[in-house]
């Protein structure tokens, strides 16, 4: 396995969305998710100015510190700046069109100043993507975000949906733990667990939920029962 053993709980993984969070804001959703037992929070802000993303990460870190891992989507520069500022951030998640994952690992190193693992996650959805990961030295990639499971409006340019069976086929040969993503809702958890998922990344089902804490607790409980 190219990933390394980590104590981070990937099972319930929140990906933030400012539009779906509505007037209450992303930080309120994060607070609810943390209270509900989320293992990882990924800050995903595709269109916000860099300074706004940086400030959001700093404030989110105050909520997640000591309770959940905090990951920054795409923006390696923001992660490094937040870490240098003393924020409790744990890593970055990149896609196939972002910085090459080997370069990301070189930039973030293997550990954060507090001794936690510097996490590097990578989006992957084809056998060729998995082969590329396997060609890197062990420890380059900690986990893979594999999807989409089904069509989702939160990522309009997503590839063809894999479905649970397509996910299972990739997870069976993946060189790192696989977190399913894309249109996932609570009833999907048992099937994804059986398909080999290390976790499920959720956007709408938590960010748009009337009660993000209750929604997160439902996912965390479902994993425990699976």
From TrEMBL:
Keyword Manganese annotated: no
Record text on cofactor binding: Binds 1 Mg(2+) ion per subunit.
Cofactor(s) annotated in UniProt: Mg(2+)
Pathway per the UniProt entry: Cofactor biosynthesis; thiamine diphosphate biosynthesis; thiamine phosphate from 4-amino-2-methyl-5-diphosphomethylpyrimidine and 4-methyl-5-(2-phosphoethyl)-thiazole: step 1/1
Residue numbers binding 2-[(2R,5Z)-2-carboxy-4-methylthiazol-5(2H)-ylidene]ethyl phosphate: 152-154, 183, 203-204
Top EC group: transferase
Pfam families membership: TMP-TENI (PF02581)
Domain Thiamine phosphate synthase/TenI positions: 13-206
GO function term, MF aspect, one: thiamine-phosphate diphosphorylase activity
Keyword check for Magnesium: yes
CDD domains hit by this protein: TMP_TenI
Key words of the record: Magnesium, Metal-binding, Thiamine biosynthesis, Transferase
Swiss-Prot/TrEMBL catalytic activity: 2-(2-carboxy-4-methylthiazol-5-yl)ethyl phosphate + 4-amino-2-methyl-5-(diphosphooxymethyl)pyrimidine + 2 H(+) = thiamine phosphate + CO2 + diphosphate; 2-[(2R,5Z)-2-carboxy-4-methylthiazol-5(2H)-ylidene]ethyl phosphate + 4-amino-2-methyl-5-(diphosphooxymethyl)pyrimidine + 2 H(+) = thiamine phosphate + CO2 + diphosphate; 4-methyl-5-(2-phosphooxyethyl)-thiazole + 4-amino-2-methyl-5-(diphosphooxymethyl)pyrimidine + H(+) = thiamine phosphate + diphosphate
Superkingdom of this protein's organism: Bacteria
Binding site for 4-amino-2-methyl-5-(diphosphooxymethyl)pyrimidine: 42-46, 73, 123, 155
EC numbers, comma separated: 2.5.1.3
UniProt-annotated binding residues for Mg(2+): 74, 98
PANTHER family in the record: THIAMINE-PHOSPHATE PYROPHOSPHORYLASE, THIAMINE-PHOSPHATE SYNTHASE
Function: Condenses 4-methyl-5-(beta-hydroxyethyl)thiazole monophosphate (THZ-P) and 2-methyl-4-amino-5-hydroxymethyl pyrimidine pyrophosphate (HMP-PP) to form thiamine monophosphate (TMP).
Family named by the database record: Belongs to the thiamine-phosphate synthase family.
UniProt name for this protein: Thiamine-phosphate synthase
